[in-house]
Design a protein that fits this description.
Blueprint lengths: L1 H20 L10 H7 L1 H14 L3 H12 L11 E2 L3 E2 L14 H11 L9 H16 L8 H16 L7 H36 L1
Antiparallel strand pairs: 1-2
Helix pairs in contact: 2-3, 2-8, 3-6, 4-8, 6-7, 7-8
């Protein structure tokens, strides 16, 4: 009985430890300035992505908000068998970017980031930048969050074929992504210099 109790407490401690390792979503997800002030590592990651892939911070963060609500372990809800039995998930999407396994593997192969993890914000942000950059060569505007999101969801081939026109729910979602990107952009203009100064002070 004593051994069973010790075993139970050990399992409980391990579960609590792993739970504490999960990065919590920001306290103010509607304000990009407060997000970056709270999570300095996210700010530094987004700055690196902007430098590498040219995606504006507010566009990238609007994607993460829509895809995962800033939850590192986000996954699509399981389908229900007979209406109540948990069944398979509708896709292999995981993490901040909700990248599919096949597309994530393409990203790792193309960038050489073989240890990339979809539950890591830095890697997910870089993935979004990598995917968006493919649209820039096709004439997409860097601030056109709506079109970039539609292509992110449907693929650039699907976007060219306008497959999204048959998915009015997706069009509405892309409009929300654009609206959030615009909101984040206005906020970011008001705090970008302050964030940059604090970055240099931090390293100084």
């Amino acid at each position: 009985m004593h051994l069973k109790k010790i075993k139970f407490l050990s399992i409980l401690c391990i579960a609590v430890f792993f739970q504490s390792c999960v990065t919590k979503p920001p306290e103010s997800p509607d304000n990009i300035c407060l997000i970056f002030k709270e999570k300095r590592s996210w700010y530094k990651a987004v700055m690196r992505v902007e430098k590498r892939w040219k995606i504006p911070p507010y566009v990238l963060m609007s994607f993460v908000y829509q895809e995962s609500s800033f939850k590192s372990d986000a996954r699509p809800e399981r389908d229900k068998l007979l209406g109540f039995i948990p069944w398979f998930r509708p896709s292999t999407a995981v993490g901040y970017s909700q990248a599919l396994t096949m597309t994530w593997d393409d990203y790792k192969d193309e960038t050489g980031n073989s240890r990339a993890n979809r539950k890591d914000f830095k890697d997910s942000a870089d993935f979004i930048g990598w995917y968006a950059s493919k649209g820039y060569y096709q004439g997409f505007e860097r601030t056109d969050a709506r079109s970039l999101y539609l292509a992110y969801h449907e693929g650039y081939g699907g976007f060219k074929k306008k497959t999204y026109r048959k998915k009015q729910w997706l069009v509405k979602v892309s409009d929300r992504v654009q609206a959030r990107s615009t909101k984040y952009q206005q906020q970011y203009w008001g705090c970008a210099q302050d964030l940059k100064k604090k970055k240099f002070l931090f390293f100084g």
